[in-house]
Give the backbone structure.
Amino acid sequence: MKDFKPIGKYRRKDYSGKLQETTIKKIYENATAIWKPRIIEQIEKLKKETNSFDELMERLALEGYQIKRGKYLSIKPYGKERFTRLHKLGDEYSEEALRQFFKDKKKGSYVKQLKAVNGYKGRSKYSDSYVEQANNSKLAMELSSKGQQVGKEYPKYYNSRYKEFLRYKELAKSLDFMSAEKIFSYEDLAEKIEAVELELAEREAEYEKQKSIVRTFEENEPFAHTYIETYNAYMLYKEQVEKFGEENITISEDVQKHLTVKENLNDAELQEVREFIRGCGQEKREANRQYSYITYLHSKLTDYDKLRSRALEMNGYIKGMNFGIKMIDEKRSTDEYYCVKLPYTKKYVYLNKNCVTWKEHGVRATMYLIDDETYELYNEDNQKIGEVSGDQLEQISNEEKEEVKEYYASLKVEV
């Protein structure tokens, strides 16, 4: 089948295995899928700061989300057309589940879920620092519960205890991961990250080649399937022509289709076309396999970056803003620095790549800053327009964000 003519216009497809759909429902799902993770992220953040479901809803409204009550509680950011129901974000985000969460938060019943970490003590200085932090969090939880009287509310303690619980849980998870990956020092972690990044670059290059192969197959795949579907009609037509003569037989639509695709496929025989279709399926499966492995490597780098985030915090860096990969100006970035656009602004800052970690590798990142360190600001033309301290970077972005929220609030239409 190598001599098949390149037929038709190629339409790029997503090889993750998801079918391309154009229904209104699918378009809506694709649109909301972009901001659903942001809502989940905001809810998780506010769960640490609030003590009731109603307070959570109030804070979400203040953060720029519209809440619609009914049989099912729905939510959307200002400026979006469609609401999504809370339980559609996940079972743990339904109204019932969130109300139960706040009951448990007050009781502190989740503390019983704590996993022992002292078994990791003594393996390395690196893991010992994690064990020490975890035990400090456990002690803080115990102290926050002492002296509380039955029937009295302690919102400040509920929040601090829950934050320590999350911290302990994350530290325990990190210790499990470090043990499984045989990471005993920061140098081990750096080597692991470098190795996976190199492998990822190689795999992505292979994947691009594989997509090119699939594209070549896909150009002729519709014609090959039409060939198979109309083959019997064509064979019947040939038999009738032999019996009654070509001038006495009317060519059906299926026969005409077959003759057209047969010509475009260089008069290929049935067996050749079947082999082509099988080959097309094999190449697509290989593309999906490669895509799955690339996704796995991204996931692994995300796990490594969680450890790197912890290491930066332990060395005095302050967690700054989150930003999406689209905020990175690739043309102005270098091997050592990312050129990052501050969210909601037209200002840019250069960040050392060692001070940027990925919440979701290749999708969303977090900048780590030194408060009293000076950062230079640039405009869209890469001209320096000022200098600010680390803590001012987020302030600049937040001020612009508030203006955007106020604008959308002014356009709010009651539902």
User: Anything to note?
Assistant: The CA atoms of residues 125 and 185 lie 8 Å apart. Residues 189-300 form one domain. Confidence is low (pLDDT under 50) at residues 1-32.
